[in-house]
Amino acid sequence: MIYGHFICRLKISKDSDMLRCVTKIFKTLQLSTHFGLFSRWMRKRTPFLFRFFICCLISFFILKNDEVSNYDQRFQLRGPQKVSDQIVLILIRPSDFAINSTENINSMMNLQNSFSRNEDQFWDQQKWKLFLQKVLNYEPASVSVAIEFQNKQKLISNDIKENRIFFDSRIFWTIPIKDNSSNINSPLANKDNINLGHMDLIRDEDGVVRRVITDSKNLPLLPELATGRNFPSGRSYHMINYRSEKNPFKTFYWSQIMNQQVALSDLKEKIVFIGTEATSSPKEMTPLGSQLRVQILAQIADNLIQNRWIRRADIGLSALYLLSIALLTVAIITQFPQSVAFFLFAWLATFIAALSAWIFDSLYFWVPAVSPVILIILVWIIFVGYQVSKIERKNFLLQQEQKYLQELEQLKNNFVSLISHDLKTPLAKIQAVTNRLLTSDMIKNHQGDLVAIKNYSEELHKYIQSILQILKVESRDFKLNKEVADINDVIESVVKQLNPLAIESQMTLAVDLEPLFAAEFDQTLMKEVILNLIENSIKYGSSKQQISIRSWEENENIYVSISDTGPGISPEDLENVWKKFSRGKGQDLKTKGTGLGLYLVKYFVELHGGQVKMDSQIGKGTTVVFNLPIATEEKLTHPAQEQI
């Protein structure tokens, strides 16, 4: 209102500057109110948000380690994979270049020991000329020599015509890494150096070859020449999809080629890689262990042919993936019971691990699995404690509330008891005066009024008794006063008590009682049950009807039924007759009552471990049957305690 008053005044004065100033002030106040609400919301959820932040922080830290060590484990767990059958390896042993004489045994040993420095010992122009000729006779698609000859001046003679096989378009040679520059001077090079490639493998910080660099500005990588395929564009490197720990490619040896022990189909139209095999041969570390360099080049060629490079999401996307899992797990543990949450967590962790393995094997995409599983475990450990603290606090508040409710209930009971007792005293005095006046001859003309006063006082007394009885049985310290008795005796005493009322209402009480075993029950309460049921039949029945009371024994239970031929109860009222203060819609004007009789009947029967049922049809009458167990249990649950 103040704001509107200001705006009106400002519009009248046409002071737009002042209007903007006041508007800004009220917007600032509104923003401060929102900020206050937000700050209170944050303070209330600080413990929850702090735990969530700790879980995410630890899982992000684990994700960095997951990028290296667990990436390698994924290769080791999945087992051998199928490779391209177009790739064939030919390995050269040191013995293929050694002379079979005793004096040269030492030279063979020196060959093996010096191999780690260079591979020039594996060069013999005549042997290579004959060997390459035999290989080309098999009509391979390409032949790649994955051997670095350091001393290139001694490779071949100057007679190019004699040595033209070395320059065959199907043969590709490797030049040393240091020669992979703009000034290439190799006797093995043909026109434009298109038959030369390098096999420089990039090692990560831990010395493991996981990727291949694809942005070489000079010579291509040897597998590119061998397969005639280029690396996919868009990335400066590609993760190698290693297919097996052992050599998965078909492999032959120099001696087999020279002795023509290889079938034509084994090399025809194949991509051939030639490398060396010796105890000191240069090996590289891979996620699957150490492998020969020529084997890694073959793996790269297989990736080029099948285009199945391993792809990995950026660290940002992986962090977002972890964050989504954290939100899901926190929602589960806060919305479900702990037993259900534990089952869902176990299922989620298994699903994430299985899905990650399937994606890696089928789609060649690396999705972190260890860090999400650790995140799930962290959320369980941290938030279980948080949930326990919340439950303890709720239990404490519930105990406090229960204590307050008990005190309130006690106050209510004390108040009702006090009022009821205070009403009973003047009511008893009214009844005494009325009885005395009825016996006097002085006021015979007012005898009808006195009878009405007496009836009204008795009705009020009955209401008060019903209320006191409910307060008594619903109290926590109420106990059944059980004793061994015969239910037939209780029925007969009630029938004797109500027989005058039935005669006055022109009704008859027909009793059919079978001999029964004695049972243990509270006689006072059972008398109240039978009294209420027979009294209801008399009160709500029609004149000249018969009310049948039966008792019998069946399946270790005592059964009692009260049947009448009255107007019956409608189905909509039949559902509510057992409720407290509930009466039929058509009975409020016909007869007076508290609506507590049937409620007490059901309450007392269930206190004894029995059940009560009612069957009624309009115009045909009503039958109520209840049963009591003969052998009762030592301890029965109090209905009031069940509600609490």
Structure in words:
This protein has 644 residues and is α/β, with parallel strands linked by helices. The protein has helices at 2-13, 16-44, 46-66, 69-78, 105-114, 125-137, 222-227, 254-258, 264-267, 293-306, 315-335, 338-362, 370-438, 447-473, 487-504, 523-540, 571-574, 597-607, 639-643, and strands spanning 87-92, 142-145, 171-174, 196-197, 211-213, 237-239, 250-253, 271-276, 283-286, 289-292, 311-312, 365-366, 483-485, 508-513, 519-521, 546-554, 557-564, 611-617, 621-629. Helix 1 (2-13) packs antiparallel against helix 2, helix 3 (46-66) packs across helix 11 and helix 11 (315-335) runs antiparallel to helix 12. It is rod-shaped and about 165 Å long.
Distance between the termini: 49 Å
Lateral strand order in the biggest sheet: 4-3-2-8-1-7
Give the overall shape.
Answer: rod-shaped
Mean pLDDT: 77
Number of strands: 19
Rg for CA atoms: 50 Å
Q: Ranges with pLDDT <50 over ≥5 residues?
A: 5-14, 99-117, 634-644
Number of domains: 4
Provide a count of the helices.
19
DSSP helix fraction: 40-55%
Structural class: alpha/beta
- β-strand percent reads 5-15%
Describe the biggest sheet? 6 strands, parallel
